[in-house]
């Protein structure tokens, strides 16, 4: 999310079940993450968009099969192998971007800079011969212990 964009609460927050027909270009959504998967992009005027799905919604089940605890690849396979409409239960995200309707999915992807940049540690070159000589001198100066 863009750092200057405000977040607003959705008034219709909750869990809902929708039926989505596969269109000529697929269902019209992409998922990301796993356990649970999140709808990451909804294509405008796609079957998913017409069903009321929104980017950021959490996917709970597909055709009655709970997907909240299975891997991303298993969810993709389950959705891809469906014939006919899919019945999806989703949990709506409590927050949404204030300009969801204005953005296309390609513009929603932003890169984030890390909080702290990694700086390589400067290593001092130490003459190994000199280091060995110092350790020998220290060993010679240690008195023998007689117990």
TrEMBL record:
Occurrences of domain PDZ (ranges): 17-94
PROSITE patterns referenced in this protein's UniProt entry, alphabetically: PDZ
Any one annotated GO CC term: plasma membrane
Domain of life according to the entry: Eukaryota
An MF annotation (GO) of this entry: GTPase activator activity
GO biological process: regulation of G protein-coupled receptor signaling pathway
CDD domains tied to this protein: PDZ_RGS12-like (cd06710)
InterPro entries, sorted: PDZ (IPR001478), PDZ_sf (IPR036034), RGS10/12/14-like (IPR046995)
Coiled coil regions in record: none
Name recorded for this polypeptide: PDZ domain-containing protein
């Amino acid at each position: 999310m863009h750092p200057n964009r405000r977040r607003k609460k959705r008034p219709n927050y909750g869990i809902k079940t929708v039926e989505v027909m596969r269109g000529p270009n697929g269902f019209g959504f992409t998922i990301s993450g796993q356990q649970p998967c999140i709808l990451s992009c909804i294509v405008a005027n796609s079957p998913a968009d017409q069903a009321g799905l929104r980017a950021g919604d959490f996917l709970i089940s597909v055709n009655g099969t709970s997907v909240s605890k299975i891997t991303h690849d298993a969810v993709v396979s389950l959705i891809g192998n469906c014939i006919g409409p899919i019945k999806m239960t989703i949990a709506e995200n409590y927050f949404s971007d204030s300009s969801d309707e204005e953005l296309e999915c390609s513009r929603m992807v932003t890169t984030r800079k890390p909080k702290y940049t990694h700086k390589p540690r400067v290593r001092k070159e130490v003459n190994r011969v000199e280091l060995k000589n110092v350790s020998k001198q220290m060993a010679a100066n240690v008195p023998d212990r007689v117990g």
